[in-house]
């Protein structure tokens, strides 16, 4: 619950409007705040006593940097941090649900099935925490927030920074007695990932029984029992008691690993994993969050020189127009950058010397990092064709340039290893001043650090929300030239709410699609927007899942009249077939990941009527797109452009125009090109291209399109519903 601000609390901090207190502890105060962009966040300040300790700031910075790398839907990420007026702070997305501690105290223990699901999801969160090089050190019911789609583990990333300060040496315990591991209680030996597993065992024991496994009383007494006495697991159900007991082994080496726990406890997060009073409480908190004060609205002013006509680059100016909706809590993933590998590594000259440049001038190169031989080779080839055509057209239309401009294409093979190799190859070529790519999100993070370390600008046209978008303050060269994946979910929510009769919607989050599915489905119940007008029937599908028949039967039996699927095309085809077998007669919606020819071929007639939101334009959209389609057919033997060919065409023209401008100013290098490209306002074939101060796509009313499967093919239906601005 939120408390009112006290007389000593600030009204604003680091650009955030403080709305109330969420809590306070030994390390600082946690506020409910709204960011400058409109997102609700939990903003934690650190006590001045800690901040003044020698070495604390450097330890804090290291731990927060590691916390930013945590990538799990069940661990609440650190999305911003800093210092203002001597106050250290960090922020995470706000989750309006109650803590597990509050639920146990108010409603008693969870059902056995709910406890198993809780354990599996928290084990998955710990996997991500440990993969980032962190140990949480304070896993307890108060640090677990509950939402309809699973828990959120919070408050990791700063406990280790506190250890070793004079404050801890004078009696402050880092962690919570009753949930500390024996090695933490004894302060003897290293505290590693097994310590978090012990704490998780304590959490599950209390969640299942309503009682802490080492009793209550003074901190000293509880710590003594933790070290010397067996855990009291009275009330823990038989099917859960044995695994909890193994988590509570005194010897760290005898405890199970989080990955094994996740598999052993795996449960489908369907309706009923939480008791009905808890789901009602979450709904009430969500509605209250939606009613909180917003930010003061402002009206954007169009950039100078911006215009709707013509595919060429416009004059530089700040990105303008209707800005995107609150994004930090929506992105949840973040960004890694382009992927690459070996393969077609030759230079493609778009035009020779006198037609588009001078043979005597310096040679500059735009790189294309694409999958030309892996799972997304068709999309990679489409981007290669679009880039080649874009450079040819730019050079044909440009005045005499004082440099040669080439396109270098590198194939990453669709693998993370290939992506790193391709990125290193492009980055090592000093003539390469910017890169477009990669083709697919699955390899994006692998090469991101290579590009950032070398200052090589990366412009992404087909990757959704990168793993690195949660650490954009540390990543400086990304230009994300398409709406974030979560916007697809918001547009799908708009479609569902405008569809007559859509009152009960099956929400199918397919874990095999990773963060993509999470972003699409999460946005449909995003608490920062108005609560949905429809009832949600949630299903979360494990990564290694049986066919969808049981889910389809449940959706039909419960009268769902629509389904929203978050996964990839192969799995969507399986769900479509299962729904048809179950007698489904409702509507089906999905994100861009289903826009793949194999969806139609695999699903057959079951694919008919599926509606998708995508970020690529169709060639018959309007005059600009149809003109591009004609050019593409003329250049490539009559072939129609495939998805993302137009987007690569626009990306090359934007970068080439920015390079022309920087060269005219006497400076043509990676840093100058990045700075000029960030200011671009380019009206392309498919959408307006520009970037906000973080290099992300800013236009909430552009760049999303609706497709529908009709007569065995994807049919373009026009722009998606506008998301507007907050």
TrEMBL record:
InterPro entries cross-referenced by the UniProt entry: Kinase-like_dom_sf, Leu-bd, Peripla_BP_I, Prot_kinase_dom, Protein_kinase_ATP_BS, Ser/Thr_kinase_AS
SMART domains for the chain: S_TKc
Region (Disordered): 300-325
Entry keyword Transferase: yes
GO molecular function ontology, one term from the record: ATP binding
UniProt keyword list: ATP-binding, Kinase, Nucleotide-binding, Signal, Transferase
Coiled-coil zones: none
Domain of life of the source: Bacteria
Domain Protein kinase per the UniProt entry, residue ranges: 16-274
Annotated positions binding ATP: 44
UniProt keyword Transferase, yes or no: yes
Family: Belongs to the leucine-binding protein family.
Protein name: Protein kinase domain-containing protein
């Amino acid at each position: 619950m939120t408390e009112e601000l006290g007389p000593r609390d600030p009204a604003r901090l680091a650009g955030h409007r403080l709305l109330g207190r969420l809590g306070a502890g030994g390390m600082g105060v946690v506020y409910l705040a709204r960011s400058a962009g409109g997102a609700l966040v939990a903003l934690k300040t650190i006590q001045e006593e800690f901040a003044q300790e020698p070495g604390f700031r450097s330890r804090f910075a290291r731990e927060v940097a590691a916390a930013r790398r945590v990538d799990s839907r069940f661990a609440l990420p650190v999305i911003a941090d800093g210092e203002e007026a001597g106050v250290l702070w960090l922020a995470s997305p706000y989750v309006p649900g109650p803590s597990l501690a509050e639920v146990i105290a108010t409603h008693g223990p969870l059902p056995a099935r709910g406890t198993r699901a809780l354990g599996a999801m928290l084990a998955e969160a710990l996997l991500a925490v440990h993969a980032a090089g962190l140990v949480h050190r304070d896993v307890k019911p108060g640090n677990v927030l509950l939402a309809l789609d699973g828990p959120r583990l919070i408050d990791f990333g700063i406990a280790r920074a506190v250890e070793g300060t004079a404050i801890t040496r004078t009696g402050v315990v880092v962690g919570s007695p009753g949930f500390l591991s024996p090695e933490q209680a004894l302060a003897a030996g290293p505290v590693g990932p097994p310590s978090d597993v012990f704490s998780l065992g304590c959490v599950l024991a209390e969640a299942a029984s309503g009682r802490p496994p080492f009793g209550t009383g003074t901190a000293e007494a509880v710590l003594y029992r933790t070290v010397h006495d067996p855990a009291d697991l009275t009330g823990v159900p038989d099917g859960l008691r044995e695994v909890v007991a193994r988590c509570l082994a005194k010897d760290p080496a005898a405890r199970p690993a989080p990955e094994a726990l996740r598999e052993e406890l795996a449960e489908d997060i369907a309706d009923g994993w939480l008791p009905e009073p808890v789901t009602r409480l979450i709904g009430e908190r969500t509605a209250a969050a939606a009613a909180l004060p917003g930010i003061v609205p402002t009206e954007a002013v169009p950039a100078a020189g911006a215009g709707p006509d013509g595919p060429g680059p416009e004059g530089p100016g700040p990105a303008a127009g209707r800005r995107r909706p609150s994004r930090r809590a929506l992105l949840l993933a973040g960004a890694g950058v382009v992927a690459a590998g070996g393969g077609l590594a030759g230079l493609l000259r778009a035009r020779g010397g006198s037609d588009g440049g001078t043979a005597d001038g310096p040679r500059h190169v735009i790189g294309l990092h694409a999958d030309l031989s892996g799972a997304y080779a068709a999309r990679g080839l489409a981007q290669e064709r679009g880039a080649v055509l874009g450079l040819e057209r730019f050079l044909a239309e440009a005045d005499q340039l004082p440099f040669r401009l080439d396109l270098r294409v590198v194939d990453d093979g669709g693998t993370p290893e290939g992506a790193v190799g391709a990125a290193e190859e492009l980055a090592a070529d000093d003539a390469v001043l910017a890169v477009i790519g990669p083709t697919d999100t699955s390899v994006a993070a692998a090469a991101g650090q290579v590009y950032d370390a070398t200052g090589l600008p990366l412009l992404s046209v087909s990757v959704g929300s990168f793993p690195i978008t949660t650490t954009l303050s540390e990543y400086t060269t990304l230009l994300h030239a398409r709406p974030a994946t979560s916007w697809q979910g918001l547009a799908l929510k708009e479609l569902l709410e405008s569809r007559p009769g859509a009152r009960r919607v099956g929400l199918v989050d397919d874990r095999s699609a990773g963060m993509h599915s999470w972003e699409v489905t999460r946005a449909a119940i995003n608490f920062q927007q108005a609560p949905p007008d429809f009832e949600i029937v949630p299903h979360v599908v494990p990564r290694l899942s049986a066919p969808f028949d049981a889910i389809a039967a449940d959706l039909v039996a419960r009268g769902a009249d629509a389904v929203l699927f978050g996964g990839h095309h192969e799995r969507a085809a399986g769900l479509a077939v299962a729904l048809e077998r179950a007698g489904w007669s409702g509507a089906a919606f999905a994100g861009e990941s289903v826009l793949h020819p194999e969806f139609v071929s695999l699903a057959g007639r079951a694919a008919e009527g599926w509606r998708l939101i995508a970020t690529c334009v169709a060639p018959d959209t309007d005059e600009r797109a149809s003109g591009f389609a004609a050019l593409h057919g003329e250049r490539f033997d009559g072939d129609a452009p495939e998805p993302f060919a137009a987007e690569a065409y626009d990306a090359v023209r934007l970068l080439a125009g920015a390079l022309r401008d920087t060269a005219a100013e006497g400076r043509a290098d990676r840093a100058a090109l990045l700075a000029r490209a960030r200011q671009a306002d380019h009206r392309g074939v498919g959408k307006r291209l520009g970037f906000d101060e973080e290099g992300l796509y800013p236009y909430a009313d552009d760049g999303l399109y609706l497709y529908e499967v009709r007569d065995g093919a994807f049919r373009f239906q026009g722009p998606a519903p506008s998301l507007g601005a907050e």
